[in-house]
Amino acid sequence: MKWFVILQLVALSECLVIIPLMKIKTMRETLREKNLLTSFQEENSDEWSQNAADDTKFSLHPLRNHMDLTYIGNITIGTPPQEFRVIFDTGSSDLWVPSVNCYSPACRTHKLFNPHSSTTCQLSPWTFNLTYISGRIFGYLGHDTVQIGNLVILGQIFGLSNTLIGFEKAPFDGIVGLGYPSLALQWTTPVFDNMKTQGIISQPVFAFYLSTQKENGSVVMFGGVDHSYHKGKLRWIPVSRTHYWQITMNRITMNEVVVGCFRGCQALLDTGTTYLLGPTRIVTAIQKLISARPVGQEYVVPCSNIRHLPSIFFTINGHYYPVPPQTYIRKSHQGHCFSYFRGGTENFKRAETWILGNVFLRLYFSVYDRGNNKIGLAPAV
Prior knowledge:
- The protein is mainly beta.
- The chain folds into two domains: about 60-220, Acid Proteases (Cathepsin D, subunit A, domain 1, Beta Barrel); about 230-380, Acid Proteases (Cathepsin D, subunit A, domain 1, Beta Barrel).
- It has six helices and 27 strands.
- It has helices spanning about 25-35, 35-45, 190-195, 280-290, 325-330, 360, and strands at about 5-10, 60-65, 70-75, 80-90, 95-100, 120-130, 135-150, 150-165, 175, 205-210, 220, 235-240, 240, 245-255, 255-260, 265-270, 275, 295, 300, 310-315, 320-325, 330, 335-340, 340, 355, 365-370, 375-380.
- Strands 13, 14, 15, 16, 17, 20, 21, 24 and 25 form a nine-stranded mixed beta sheet that branches.
- The two termini are about 25 Å apart.
């Protein structure tokens, strides 16, 4: 399940006014001038995303695990509020929900936003279209109040679909994108950026804890980090490109043999993706190593083989992040076993690219620090 690829805005214009302000040096700038910033961050990395459970500008929002495929939370839009099931997706940056003006078959199975029932909604004449691997969306833009837990975002721009193709069986109504603004529709501001500029979160961070198998217990948190959801200290990894949540990966190994990322590569951490995705040629070789054979669109593994298979190790910033076979192989209710590896990332032509989806993120609590453009990882509890 993948929720990104092509984003296109048909028309939108907006004025931007920049007002110069007198700036006082921050502690960060003073430390950088004295070449002390790196060591200070390493020694105090957890302080940059301090537990803020008693802060009104911190929100811990529950997510529901849908069959270990995706994680779904609720938001409201409008006044009075209209509730929607959404994916909080680090692999995209736009917010959209279906509208009452949508007559596609997919819209009949989802909650629809009625702009005329909201006293705070303002519609725009500008249209948009989004293309995902799973389907396409056509619609128009609007502004309204969005609420996530105790966080209220005013004047949030969002998409209302009037044509929805390919989402008939999706267990969610819409998507909240948490990627960088450069990934969003042109001249629009993503939800998280509005949280920051409107001052409704105490710190420019969010984090995910994704449970395994259990339907309840997963959370997304905004404005701080509850450290009770991970073991040990967070290891921080710099973002290599501020577009997706993208990092540099050193190598991928099985049984101490390099099986991917041979000369270093790029990796995207993506909560909108179920699988471990990589270049098709490399993934096909890994499928052979684990005795997975293609059956339709799936790769089937003999369930009796799982206990004999090795873990796969993703080396990131010099640290090993193992993923055991019980994690990269899924056992269905019918007793069949399937590989969670998928190909298809050769569309990223600049470098070998991998997408670490929920298979990886269930194992590792992840923190996304927009203030410092880095990602923190630690074993999940």
